[in-house]
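Audit log entry. Action: structure prediction of a protein-small molecule complex. Ligand: zinc ion. The ligand was supplied as SMILES and no pocket hint was given, so placement is left entirely to the predictor. Protonation state taken as written. Sequence taken verbatim from the request; no trimming, no tag removal. Recorded inputs:
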Amino acid sequence: MCEICNKKKQGTWLRRMKGGVEEGSGRCKKRGSSGLWIAMLFLAFLCGLPLPASAREMVIALDPGHGGGEQGAVCYGIQEKDVDLLMAKLVKVELEQYDGVRVVLTREKDERVGLEERARRACVAGADLLVSLHFNASVSGRSKGASVYISTAEETLPGLRVLADHLLGQFEALGLENAGAFARVTQLGGRRADGSFDDYYGVLRHSHNYGMPAVLVEHCFMDNEEDCVWLGSTKRLECLARADAAGIASCYGFARKDGRRVRALHARVFGATSRGVEMQYFKAPRLSGIRLLSYDGGTPGIAEYEVDVEDRVGIHSLWLVYRGSQGKTMTVSFSLQEPLVTGTHRVSVYVPAGVALDQYTLCFAGAYNTAGYDVAYNRSGDTFVGFGKCEWQNVFPYDGEADLAVEREAGIPEEYASMQQEKLRQELRKAWEKRSLRYRSFTPGKSR
Ligand SMILES: [Zn+2]
């Protein structure tokens, strides 16, 4: 077994997976270690960076988000899945300007690829790092900036923090707001073998299970007036792609083929949201109680809750995940007109049609405050088992009582999803008309 790459030396390879190992055939690319290579590995280890495959080549899997019937964010007729794919192609071109890098894509066309399949494809291609490429959207249209999500797995967290720092430094230099770097755990209670909670983002979770460090980049908000200019032309997207490549290259010390130096840029605001820095507020909100007071069961139904919160700047949205029989989950989101500050509040929310809320169990609750921080809790009985997402290292005050294992993940009901999508579409249309901005035409797939 090759200790560096987790592969058997003679012709077959082996990867650690959930519930066992996967075996395949092919040469172990990660053999060969000169003195220089050992020194580099040691240096990388000291800096907490993920170890590249070899001194000569690091394989990076770029993962364009969504695809096929899954469009991702849709703003003003532009579908995120198309922009993500175009971005991946542009980033590949940029990364190939560097020595020692091989780039693979988890999808090269408009197809729906499952989250595990993305990680599997990257793993089969021998990837040492997976970078999932996305664009964000918020219903309000007010959120803006670039954010980087990294896997919460302890082994890779320090190295990925460094990568997030390099990436956000590049985005800041472009003038994008730094919306923060986050490590976020699952809302479904799934655990790793060591007892820690799984990653929230499926592609990060599966990548970890396949033995690859992974990050997810949300470049900017497609529905934000300031951010959307980045989607207005292929030229602008190329700037973002150059930033992605430069961030990765400076983090891992790649040299440009043309001899030009790539400068490492570090995030000015790191581990905090820029909104938080502006407001001089660095705390995630807290939820200490949620009670369902009434629910009319109508179509759509209105549910009234009482919530206990602790937050000085105010919570602007809340979300609850309910689990029904057979592991089905349903999310109820609240957007609050008046931010909730410390105290007990009554809030009402629409619940999708035909949901027997009393037959669901509240298993997860989350809140965002106006400083851009959020908190989320797994819930067992009346106990919250929580973490603050804005913390680098999520802390679990877990005492062994909550068993939140779920058999399988289930999406939100189709009906509810399409209702939410329609709502989003309408809100965006309204927001767009109000702003009377003209969007430049954009043809996904037509690069360079
Ligand atoms: Zn996305």
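Audit: result stored. The two ends are 44 Å apart (CA to CA). Residues 208 and 361 are 29 Å apart (CA to CA).
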